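Extended Data, panel c. Modelled sequence:
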Amino acid sequence: MDSQLPDEYDSIHRALEPFWGMDPVELVKIQAEHETRMDTYTILKNETHDTHLYSTSFSDPENWEQKNLLRGLEGILKLLDPVEPALRSFRATFSPHFEPSLLSDYHIKNSFIDAASAGKYVNTSNLPEAQNFGFASACAPGSPGRSLDQPINSSFHSLPRTRRTFIYNHRSSMDPCENPYLFDHHTLHVTKLDSVTAHPTLAPQFSFSSTPLYLDIPLPSFFGWVADDTIEDPLKWESKKDERLRWRGNN
């Protein structure tokens, strides 16, 4: 049977695994601090109220409506509604932006993963200092994306491709640490090459998207979803002569 479920469960595991290496008391503290991070909003459920918008932290509070900084909130609440009676009290902080924002540091992230594997918690006061190598901070030393301990910035240019190759591992092909070509060819990286820095620790933030470089936890959402039957006069597959793909932002 061809099932995508194992891969989806693997993705959930990879996103949450580092947090199992953090003391829950420390995690609650960091989550509360993260609620004040710019351009985030937090939802809450407690013993007296169903899940609802609890707080916002916007860098431009006067124009948050024009910038649609609560995008996706209604869909998230609708997604939780069927299981609302089974949910315990919780708080969760979300980024309203399409792109992830919490770049990981390889050594810090793996400190938590190693602790989780051993059934222990990391002493956050002894964490290594985050390295300032730009996007390369998230890559393992010696990997193609961090073969030299130098920043990945606008001066970085990957070697030109001279031939086509076969993708045998889809996940690795999308991981800039394994495929540095993506650093200067993908908009997510190109626009931030000189400004991105690694986050100094873990922080539980849910986002609409994430990559292997980021700590953001991807969330299931119907935001931006477009049903096939809403497209008027769709072009038949046989008539699509252009091999290029244009991504509209919706699917």
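The mean pLDDT is 84. This feature is highlighted in the accompanying rendering.
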